[in-house]
Amino acid sequence: LGFSLSVIAVLQVSISLNKVELSVGESKFFTCTVIGEPVSINWFSPQGERIISNQRVIVHTEGVRSRLTIYNAIIEDAGIYRCQAVDTKGQSQEATVVLEIYQKLTFREVKTPQEFRQGEDAEVICDVISSPVPAVSWFYKNKEITSEPNSRFQVLPTNNLQILRVSKADEGVYRCEARVEARGEIDFRDIVVLVNGKSCSSHTVCTSSLSSEQKGHVIERSEQYVLSTLDGGKSTLTIKNIRQGDGGPYTCHASNKAGSSESQLFLKVFGEETFGSFIHLLIFYKANSTHISSVIVYSCVYTCECFHFAHSVCLLLDAPKFQTNQTIFYSWEGNPVNISCDVKSNPAATMLWRRDRFTISSQGTSNIRIHTTEDQSLLEVTPVSDRDFGRYNCTARNNIGARYQEFILAQADVPSHPYSVRLSAVSQRLATVTFMKPDSHGGVPISYYIINYKDTSSQDWRTVRSHGVQTTVVLANLEPNTTYEVRVAAINGKGQGDFSHTETFQTLPIREPSPPTVHGQRGVGKAYRLGLIKQDDGGMPIVEYIVKYKTDKEEQWMTKLVPGMNDFALLQPLQWNTRYNVEITARNVKGLSEPTFFQFLMPQKPDITADSLFSGLGLGTVVGLGVAGLLLLLVLVDVSCFFLRQCGLLMCITRKLCSKKTTTSGKSKELEEGKAAYLVDGSKEPIVEMRTEEERITNQEDGSPVQEPNETTPLTEPEKLPLKEENGKEVLKPDLIEIKVHKDNSIHTKQDDSKA
After folding, report:
1. Disulfide: which of 412, 451, 505, 654 matches 330 by Cβ 3.0-4.6 Å?
2. What are phi and psi of 289, to 5 degrees?
3. What is the model's pTM?
């Protein structure tokens, strides 16, 4: 049997946009694209009718594309539009687009000024429309008018302002401000309220005539000067293509039955290169019968306002502009958050905060505080329940304009889980974990990550904390040859998020260490230092390094064992100008690593010079050695003077010590009486000692008799005392001659024969 099989692809239909918001009067087109071979492509309206082109709605189809264009959209155009494609079998596929039409804020026939009779109930009309319905607020003298019981000012359901028993004191400029919170749209109109006194009855029409003059000449209508008279006694002067010569004083003169008044201002032109292409307006309007204010508008953005003072100065003014880009803030219950509304304007703007169409008092509430400076209003919110989360609105206004910005206080959540957890650089004791940060931080910045890991056979997780928000963490102190599970979670101010998917990895078994890495460094003298950089220890500590080395000419290796905790090996003594081969092996309890080979060359034998001796010494050491050498030289000189010339410091010290040992004994007295004498004249005559017979035969110490020497008795060499000349030089010791004095006064002399 034979079968014929044909396959027809199903059509795929898509529209360029899924949902579109369009304001009334705007235009938009949508493109429908079909993948496949469609027979027809048609568009259907929200009412289910096939759209046929007309002047405002056009359908254009070409090939596999069809375009729907809607010009000048109206409210009735809102709804779901369908693009339908049909294939050759009559099967259809379609795609849809949602079109939402909204009405922009529009003020309809808001008149100014609005006049009322004194004492009547005035209703100031402000007709504004939008979709959704706008929120309208009224302001007077930069303060919001609130509808309080028993107040003369009430905001009516029609958004008009009612003033009960209006009086002259109620005259002024009232601002009608409308907002659409969903789009952050805001606009306003200033309305002048006039109150007529009894001088103008209800049947009397108060009119006025206004004229303008510059430099004493009445301004006539021309291509450059455009004069316009409006209702309510209002006149405008428009100056086109302003030039330097247009500067100067301008006077507006107004008069009616009650009298006349005028106001003068000075127009300063800053240069044609700045304002030459703009249209500038001088606007004069009569607020009442006695006062005129004047305004100069330079452009849509900048306004110069001059009031009726004797010396008024025009300044460039600016409507409020928000300087804050952040409009979404996150917090959680009990955690305070500051929402900052930063505004730049001239003059300074007043800022108000609203929540759900209610103005937040500047005094705040139990959990809300407002801190305001000239250009900033800070809303401090401490959420206590879900009701405190939502939209907060900041409105800034000055005399030039108003701006509105919406802020969202969202409830923070914990982060989502990290993903793509990977393990790298797994060894016996270490493993590196990398991961991708969560898709959502929960509105609050992530503080850090926690990494849980455990042995698969255990129930207890161990935790490691990342450094800040780094997405790489190293796990240490692992067991070799063990299977682990690891997971990661993110932490923010709200709390901990979910854990990632659990990953499994296994550490390596214990093995021999990897070869060490070696780097050489010349040592001191005949030594060489080898730096040892530990690599993978194989899961067990390095016990020792085995270092073998020899010269190129030697066959025998010399071996040096270095403890495993050392980071260097010192080889010595080595030979000068010789190349060495080195083989280094690391050992743990499992065994030896592969060897690492290294070569180095010892330098030439250095010359011993002064430079080489002191080259390795610091400046302080060299100075110390110099001082020590100088002191040693002084000591040697002093010792030489002591022995050769009996002078110097050592001689002075010796004399002082000897003088202290001298006593006033009887022997000393006898020496002083002349029984012993020294030669002091430098002659070579012998020293003569004279003793009596009693002295000769009696011991001086104990009085015992002493044997008299004779010819056969050896004589002891008497003590020789050094003699000095007057100039301090040592002289030769003379021979000693003993003179004996007997009782018969006979004298016998005997020369010392020790010299014989």
Report:
1. 412
2. -75, -10
3. 0.43
